[in-house]
Write a structure and sequence with these properties.
One of its GO terms (molecular function) is phosphoenolpyruvate-protein phosphotransferase activity. Keywords: Cytoplasm, Kinase, Magnesium, Metal-binding, Phosphotransferase system, Sugar transport, Transferase, Transport. The chain has four domains: 155 residues, Beta-Lactamase; 104 residues, 3-Layer(bba) Sandwich (Glucose Oxidase, domain 1); 111 residues, PtsI, HPr-binding domain (Enzyme I, Chain A, domain 2), CATH 1.10.274.10; 296 residues, Phosphoenolpyruvate-binding domains (TIM Barrel), CATH 3.20.20.60. It has 27 helices and 22 strands.
């Protein structure tokens, strides 16, 4: 048996020379496999690439029949090479023919070779191909040889990713990295987005692969790791994460990984084999992801995500990249792709360049989805695996109407969506032309159309949409995008700006609605709640924290001096909460008046009907408030006892069900009896079919996302509300079916009402 002399540094040096030369791609591959075989004292070296049809094609070989190149192929999972690609794990065999997965390919002539070492070619944990060395004699390859071949495989992965190989592929067959995917998720905001992928936590492209000085690279790595550890320790020592909680657990996991000797040793080994520090991080990250990708345990998969995040942070340290430098390079048609994302992070991106957002997680009520809707950005969530399948710059189409993502779409799909986008643009033009048209029905009834808002970026859409005011201003969004509690002067500044932007139009400010699914990382709750949606949140929290409530009320009162102030309380359960709040308001009015502050000309206090208990005290409620607003999202959730963020049951019950519509009718009737204005400001108001039901029930004030104003106005202009109300209420009284959806669709079709 020959003594082998593995020198990954020598191989990498030669590879660097081959990469720098101007030559044909096939010639370069032939030189690479020849050099690997010579350096590793192997009689065979073969390079297989995974194609988009799940076949592994022989792209280059030294030692096997050269006529088999681009003709020999194996299915994913077939033979030794297919097994390596499917499992993303190396195979080191002294007698390959005895392995149960061995497959004989007569065109290659490989049956005479006994020993076999194959490693997956990985990038971002994804298998792109397989690299193999073989010898006639039976021998086991050493750990150093396995490591050397894995290091070379990482360089070949970058070569595949660089896009040189497609020129060698057969017609109509592409390498797997370019495969088209159709991914199904959940629509979080309607709209069509065509553009190019921008990974939110981008896999920074490592272009400097080969090191000149291993000691210098190791020192560079050590400094970056020490800096990373210090930043994690600093975050953990801050008072806002000092207590127990999910935020702290994540940072503790980061610290554990950052101090893991096994991880650091693998990084140092990769540098010793000739890679730069950043290339070493990418290689070890990719190896770890591939080995853990098949895990089914959700806790371990979550830890893998934490590891990915930490490795990305380390790459940022090594390459000196910041969010500002990345934003400067954003394409003008960016589709942001992320596992998860905070509302503040979305606002860090330049709005004019964003065409859509794709999330592996996310729900309709998540903070980032709410902000994206305010910015009129189409969003698809629950798209599992999209991050690992994506590369920066990949073409992509997102269909926010159907909840689908077309990654690297084929030409026919792209053409179809270009036409669909044009059609939507034509419809939007029609809606814009309706901006100044009064929202009056065919029988002369006026419907007040309002928008939901919460950020300054929302406000220009008030005029653009033609809405008559803001029916719901979510004050908590300012808190959700901040790193600490906004101070009184910061809140006051925002509210003053709102008034300046909207002119004489009315605005209803909802007091702070946090808790439940709206968690502020800097705010400590009373402890973990078993059911946060039914727990310490909204008015319950702010009445327990009077200083918090008084600060916000004082800011609102000062900002609205000289004009009407409308304040709405969320999650009211009993009338006593209204009395309690009035006392706080009276106290702040007296305080500010004493110090000469100008007060509102009129102060109106309202309550949101979200808790079913209010349905049984509607008359008492109407007597103590100036207006009410129905929060249809939560009211429906609580009435039907469903978690609307749970994809398993979120669509089990219909908002057009007879029981829910009857509850909404009770609220309208109570408002009419007590001469109290009633508005609905949930998701229902922004969908034409659901809005049709609301108008039929008697709602004349509805508030929605700005983009929904046009479609809703177009619908109601064709509507005879008197006829609809008579027909709908009669159907509601007699129906025995669970939902009125089919009846409403039939009514709209019969009356030529656009939906």
């Amino acid at each position: 048996m020959r003594e082998t002399h593995v020198g990954p540094k020598v191989i990498l040096k030669r590879l660097r020379e081959f990469m720098a030369r101007a030559m044909d791609s096939q010639e370069r591959l032939d030189l690479i496999v020849r050099e690997i075989a010579r350096n590793m004292d192997a009689e065979v070296c073969s390079f297989y690439v995974l194609r988009s049809d799940n076949m592994l094609e022989l792209y280059a070989t030294e030692g096997l029949n050269p006529g088999a190149v681009h003709l020999s192929e194996l299915r994913l999972g077939q033979g030794l090479v297919g097994t390596i690609a499917a499992t993303a794990r190396p195979l080191n065999l002294t007698d390959a023919r005895k392995h149960p997965a061995f497959a004989y390919l007569p065109e290659t002539g490989e049956e005479i070779y006994s020993s076999f070492l194959g490693v997956p070619i990985l990038r971002a944990g994804r298998t792109l191909g397989v690299l193999v060395v073989q010898n006639r004699n039976k021998r086991g390859y050493s750990d150093e040889e396995v490591e050397a071949l894995e290091t070379v495989a990482m360089v070949l992965a970058e070569m595949i990713a660089a896009g040189d190989l497609p020129r060698l592929t057969r017609p109509n067959v592409d390498v797997d990295m370019r495969r088209a995917f159709t991914l199904v998720g959940q629509s979080l905001n309607e709209g069509i987005g065509l553009g190019h992928i921008v990974l939110h936590e981008p896999r920074l492209v490592v272009t400097n692969l080969f090191n000149e000085n291993s000691s210098a690279e190791t020192e560079k790595l050590t400094k970056a790791i020490n800096s990373l550890r210090l930043s994690i320790d600093d975050m953990l020592s801050r008072s806002d994460v000092a207590s127990e909680g999910e935020h702290r657990e994540i940072l503790e996991t980061y610290r554990m990984f950052a101090n893991d000797r096994g991880w650091i040793r693998r990084l140092e080994e990769a540098i010793k084999n000739g890679l730069t520090a950043e290339a070493a991080v990418e290689k070890v990250q990719s190896d770890t992801r591939a080995r853990m990708a098949h895990l089914t345990d959700p806790y371990l998969r979550e830890r893998l995500s934490d590891f990915d995040d930490l490795a990305n942070r380390l790459l940022y340290q090594l390459m000196g990249r910041t969010r500002e430098t990345i934003n400067a390079d954003l394409p003008t048609d960016s589709i942001i792709v992320a596992r998860s994302m905070g509302a503040a992070e979305l606002l860090d991106y330049p709005r004019e360049r964003i065409r859509g957002l794709v999330l592996e997680d996310g729900a309709t009520t998540s903070h980032v989805a709410i902000v994206a809707r305010a910015m009129s950005i189409p969003v698809v969530g629950q798209v599992k695996g999209v991050v690992s399948l994506s590369e920066n710059g990949d073409p992509v189409i997102i269909d926010g109407d159907d909840g689908k993502v077309y990654l690297r779409p084929v030409a026919d799909v792209e053409s179809a969506f270009v036409e669909k986008a044009r059609f939507r643009a034509r419809k939007q033009k029609i809606y814009r032309n309706l901006r100044d048209v009064p929202a009056d029905t065919k029988d002369g009834r006026h419907i007040t159309l309002l928008i939901n808002a919460g950020l300054l970026v929302d406000l220009p859409q008030l005029d653009e949409s033609g809405a008559e005011g803001i029916g719901l201003f979510r004050t908590e969004l300012q808190f959700m995008i901040a790193s600490t509690f906004p101070r009184a002067h910061e809140q006051e500044k925002l509210y003053r700006k709102v008034y300046q932007e909207i002119g004489e139009k009315p605005v209803t400010f909802r007091t702070l609605d946090i808790g439940g699914d709206k968690v502020l990382p800097y705010f400590r709750s009373k402890g973990k709640e078993e059911n946060p949606a039914l727990g310490w949140r909204a008015i319950r929290l702010t009445l327990d924290k009077p200083a918090l409530m008084r600060t916000q009320l004082r800011a609102l009162l000062k900002a609205s001096g000289g004009r009407e102030l409308r304040v709405m309380l969320p999650m009211v359960t009993e009338v006593g909460e209204i009395y309690h709040t009035r006392k706080l308001i009276d106290r702040e009015v007296k305080y500010l008046t004493r110090f000469g502050h100008k007060m509102p000309t009129k102060l109106k206090l309202g309550a949101m009907v979200e808790v079913p208990a209010l349905l049984f005290q509607l008359d008492e409620l109407m007597h103590v408030v100036d207006f009410v607003s129905v929060g249809s999202n939560d009211l429906f959730q609580f009435m039907m006892a469903i978690d609307r963020g749970n994809s398993e049951i979120a669509h089990r019950f219909d908002q057009l069900s007879a029981p829910f519509l009857r509850a909404l009718r009770k609220i309208i009737e109570a408002g009419e009896r007590n001469n109290t204005p009633v508005t609905l400001c949930g998701e229902m108001a922004g969908k034409p079919l659901l809005a049709l039901a609301l108008l039929g029930l008697g709602f004349s004030r509805i508030s929605m996302t700005p983009s929904a104003i046009g479609p809703i106005k177009a619908m109601l202009l064709r509507l005879d509300i008197g006829d609809l109300q008579n027909a709908l209420l009669a159907e509601l009284d007699k129906t025995t079916t669970s939902t009125l959806r089919p009846w409403l669709i039939k009514y709209a079709e019969a009356n030529n009402i656009a939906l």
